[in-house]
């Protein structure tokens, strides 16, 4: 299963839009996800830490995550949103490795929502303070009437194949020997296929064809949908944009198989993409076809 996917919560949209029903669920049975800012609370058994409404301030903004086992689940909005990218949060990754797949999926969705609310307390139209409505799946501005919704940013992440080789790249922030699939945000006015072709050409100077969708992954840093694709290049000549990539190169099937077999130790050439990332699943898909 893809990391951050497969949440067991029922999002219960019919409850979100019913203020009376939502208020009726805010009782002693309600469960509140307890976090340290945006870090997950993890108990001694490696599970998420849940509390009750008594564990949060009465004036806390609470986002309704959904229903599970007949109980409403909430997450409080922290005082501040995220202040850095995913790779700059080693403590978060350490904690997340302890979570089961269902707990990781719950945390991922909760983190995305809580972070969005913490960073969108004011109206983008008039600058006035907004309020949480519909259980936290919307914010409303009483001053100008504007409604704002939690957003998910689409990002393409793609394999490029040429004569049984894959193109992978590395950014300067990556650990030594770490390579991954190229990726980039879908821009306004683009299809997924167009975004794949543009990003690959911008970053590596390669023209591609036959773009196909493979799989997707929710990525809560801060709130993205990784859209995994594959493509084919006819000309392998690379022209690397060094403002985006430190390096990019073609890897043979044998080199990638050896890196996968080596696990976290890696080979002298590279580390295989880590299992929590969709790049891992994309390269495995290509190797196992």
Automatic annotation (TrEMBL):
CC per GO annotation: cytosol
GO biological process: NAD+ catabolic process; NADP+ catabolic process
Catalytic activity: a 5'-end NAD(+)-phospho-ribonucleoside in mRNA + H2O = a 5'-end phospho-adenosine-phospho-ribonucleoside in mRNA + beta-nicotinamide D-ribonucleotide + 2 H(+)
Cofactors demanded by this protein: Zn(2+); Mg(2+)
EC number(s) from the headed UniProt entry: 3.6.1.22
GO molecular function annotation: metal ion binding; NADH pyrophosphatase activity
Domain Nudix hydrolase: 150-277
SUPFAM superfamilies: Nudix
Keywords linked to the UniProt accession: Hydrolase, Magnesium, Metal-binding, NAD
Highest taxon, organism lineage: Bacteria
Enzyme kind, highest EC tier: hydrolase
Similarity section: Belongs to the Nudix hydrolase family. NudC subfamily.
PANTHER family: NAD-CAPPED RNA HYDROLASE NUDT12 (PTHR42904:SF6), NUDIX HYDROLASE, NUDC SUBFAMILY (PTHR42904)
The protein's name in its UniProt record: NAD(+) diphosphatase
Provenance organism: Erythrobacter neustonensis
């Amino acid at each position: 299963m893809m990391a951050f996917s497969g949440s067991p919560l029922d999002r219960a949209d019919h409850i979100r839009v019913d203020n009376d029903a939502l208020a009726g669920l805010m009782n002693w049975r309600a469960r509140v996800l307890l976090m340290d800012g945006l870090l997950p609370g993890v108990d001694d058994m490696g599970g998420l830490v849940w509390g009750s409404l008594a564990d949060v301030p009465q004036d806390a903004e609470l986002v309704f995550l959904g229903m599970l086992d007949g109980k409403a689940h909430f997450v409080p909005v922290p005082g501040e949103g995220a202040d850095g990218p995913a790779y700059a949060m080693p403590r978060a990754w350490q904690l997340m490795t302890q979570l089961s797949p269902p707990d990781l999926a719950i945390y991922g969705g909760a983190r995305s929502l809580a972070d969005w609310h913490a960073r969108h307390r004011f109206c983008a139209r008039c600058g006035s303070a907004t309020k949480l409505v519909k259980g936290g799946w919307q914010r409303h501005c009483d001053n100008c009437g504007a409604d704002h919704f939690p957003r998910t940013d689409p990002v393409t992440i793609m394999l490029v194949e040429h004569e049984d080789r894959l193109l992978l790249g590395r950014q300067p922030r990556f650990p030594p020997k770490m390579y991954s699939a190229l990726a980039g945000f879908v821009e306004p006015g683009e299809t997924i296929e167009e975004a794949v072709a543009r990003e690959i050409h911008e970053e590596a100077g390669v023209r591609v064809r036959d773009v196909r969708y493979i799989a997707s992954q929710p990525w809560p840093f801060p709130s993205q949908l990784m859209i995994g694709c594959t493509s084919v290049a006819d000309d392998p000549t690379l022209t690397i944009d060094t403002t985006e990539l430190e390096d990019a190169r073609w890897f043979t099937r044998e080199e990638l198989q050896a890196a996968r077999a080596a696990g976290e130790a890696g080979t002298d050439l590279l580390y295989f993409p880590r299992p929590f990332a969709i790049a891992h699943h994309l390269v495995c898909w290509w190797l196992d076809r």
